[in-house]
Amino acid sequence: MTDPAYQRLGLPSAASPYAVLRAAVRALHPDTRAVRGFRTARKRFYRQMLCAHAARQAAGDPPSG
Length: 65
Known about the structure:
The chain is mainly alpha-helical and 65 residues long. It has one domain (4-59). 66% of the residues lie in helices and 0% in strands. It has four helices and no strands. The longest helix has 21 residues, at 39-59. The chain is elongated.
């Protein structure tokens, strides 16, 4: 099952990892990005989005968006 947060990014399966990262950064509220104490959680979120995207590419899912 795909992560719901990843699905909300609305990226095609052919998107580059950099595009996934940019979309994930934009998905977070600016206040959330500004809190230094959330840095580890933000990095974990970005890693999860990249892993979900890599899994989707490996599965050969059709593009969406």
